[in-house]
Design goal:
Bound molecules: geranylgeranyl diphosphate
Number of helices: 16
Largest sheet: 2 strands, antiparallel
Number of strands: 2
Strand order of the largest sheet: 1-2
Radius of gyration: 19 Å
Structural class: mainly alpha
Amino acid sequence: MDFDAGFAEYRQAVEEALSQQPLLNPCPAEPTTQVGDDFGDEMVPQPLRSAMRYSLLLPGKRVRPVLLLAAYALQREAWRQALPFACGLEMIHTYSLIHDDLPAMDNDDYRRGQLTNHKVFGENMAILAGDGLLNLAYETMLSAPLTAQKPEVALPAIREIAERAGVRGMIAGQTLDVKLEGTAPSQKSVSYIHAHKTADLLTAPVTAGLMLAGADEDALRAGREFGFSLGVAFQIRDDLLDLHSDLQTLGKEAGMDAQRGKMTWPAVFGEEQAEKDARMYSDRAQAALDIFGEKAAFLQEMAARLCARSY
Ligand code: GRG
């Protein structure tokens, strides 16, 4: 199977699973903030359900869930067993986007080509939708059939995701990203921000996917190196796209990093060096998977495309 067909198959499986998530259904076609009188104790209140579902089902690239499924498939064929974990990661990622877009953070109006969550549902619901998705992510992973069947592999995988999404991982990176706005460019700071804000949440799917499939320490080491290098290259490309792309292509407003005085790779190293470094980290990511032989071709191609992407 070629790369595009493989990616489409993983992505479609993720989107179907997300859209069928029982707690977010049924939902009116149009976003609404009305609280109906039809809610029972077991139902998620309609405004919350609508706000969570809105951002989750907007057309994201689904990079993280596809990484998890493809990493699992490096070791085992039955990748659909890992779908609840792939969905959990996409829920965590979506919560982080909703919160990142809030007025108190980056104050963005557009995300994934549509109005941001707080622009549609209000700030209070956007905060709750993010909180809801974060908790639903863990509920989904802990309730997965694979967790009941093989807790000895599933619980460490869930813990890996919690750590990398958490206060020493993505949230730590986001803290420095916010706190260092407007400060002098620094190699140490930008490396820390990219490693945690972005690379941790791109490493988690790879290492968790491998763990779920019962991978050994050599495979996990390769997965960590792949995820870290891919994550840094991915964020450098994101920084470069912010300099030169536009709302229509990116689905979010461009040029905002400079306006906010963000610590970006081009701001620290210059654009030419940033281009070189994106390629260098992408090559390093691909090389890390050589130990898997031909099976690694899909993830290697995915890294190459993500690091050279135009959106
Ligand atoms: C609020 C705790 C908290 C964290 C926010 C995700 C994030 C951390 C900030 C968003 C801004 C940003 C540049 C993050 C770096 C990672 C990144 C490039 C996210 C966008 O991911 P894509 O391109 O988005 O995979 P889609 O929409 O395709 O899923």
